[in-house]
Specification:
Elements (H helix, E strand, L loop, with lengths): L1 H7 L18 H11 L7 H20 L5 H4 L7
Length: about 80
């Protein structure tokens, strides 16, 4: 949710890193973001769950990768 919210607001996501147990927004706002970005017009709860699970795994792997660390790659992968 935090990544999607910042993406919609035009923030640079390269420098953002999720902090465990940090809470932003409310459940309705979170659900609205997921519905907006999941890519399905009328998703089931199962489809939303799969979308959020997949997105979470991908973002966790991205944060853990040295190749996605802006301090390591500096500006060599701008826009990647």
């Amino acid at each position: 949710f935090q990544y999607l919210k910042r993406f919609d607001q035009g923030y640079n996501l390269d420098t953002f890193c999720y902090k465990a147990r940090s809470v932003e927004g409310n459940p309705a706002e979170c659900l609205q973001q997921f519905l907006l970005h999941c890519g399905i017009v009328d998703p089931s709860w199962s489809e939303l769950r799969n979308f959020t699970w997949f997105l979470n795994v991908q973002l966790r792997d991205c944060e853990a990768s040295v190749f996605c660390n802006p301090e390591f790659v500096q500006d060599t992968l701008q826009g990647f």
